[in-house]
Amino acid sequence: INTADPKAAQITDLASLEVAYPGRLDAVIVWFRVYKAYNFLNGTFVPTGDPINTYAFDAVPQSASYTIDVLNHSMESWMSLKSMTNPPDDIWVPPQTPTPAPGPSTGAASSVLSTVSLLFCVGLSA
User: Fold this and answer.
1) Partners of 38 in the beta sheet?
2) For residues 36 and 14, what is the distance between their CA atoms, to the nearest angstrom?
3) Which of 30, 43, 64, 80 is the most exposed place for a label (fewest CB within 10 A)?
4) Do 17 and 11 form a contact (C-beta atoms < 8 A)?
5) Helix, strand, coil percentages in the chain from 3-state DSSP, rounded to 5
6) pLDDT category, 121, cuts 50, 70, 90?
7) What is the rounded CA–CA span in Å between residue 121 and residue 37?
8) What are 62-93's pLDDT values in tens digits?
9) Element (H, E) at 71
């Protein structure tokens, strides 16, 4: 949500989003489901031939805390994989540069997301 939105301070989770903007969350879920499958041309939805997206959790958005946990877990897994000197043969890891650029540290996702008013996650498995 845009922090300049007059209702931004009122929106702290999905329930408060629904109160501030009834139906907006459902509209976002529908958009993510069909955005690749249809083009909107001259006021008409035209099928692209791509399939409609499907979601885990019966398309029920997950909480911000769950989303942060998933992001932190993903980052920790990636950092662990990058630090392997001999990764498994079935996993490709890009070659390291002689002087790797500094990257985010473990927990950085939480600090970045703490500045976001609202974050929700659709489509990740439990």
Assistant:
1) 47
2) 25
3) 43
4) yes
5) 40, 10, 50
6) very low
7) 21
8) 888 899 999 999 999 888 887 877 777 777 76
9) helix 64-83
Helices assigned H by DSSP within 21-63: 24-34
CA pair distance 12, 33, nearest whole angstrom: 24
Tokens of 55: 């979601």
In the chain, pLDDT over 90 holds for what percent of residues?
23
The residues with which 44 forms a beta bridge, in sequence order, are 41
Stated pTM of the model: 0.54
Q: Quick check: 56 and 70 in contact, CB under 8 A? A: no
Using DSSP, how many helices (H) and how many strands (E) does the chain show? Answer: 4, 2
Residue listed under structure tokens 């489509």:
123
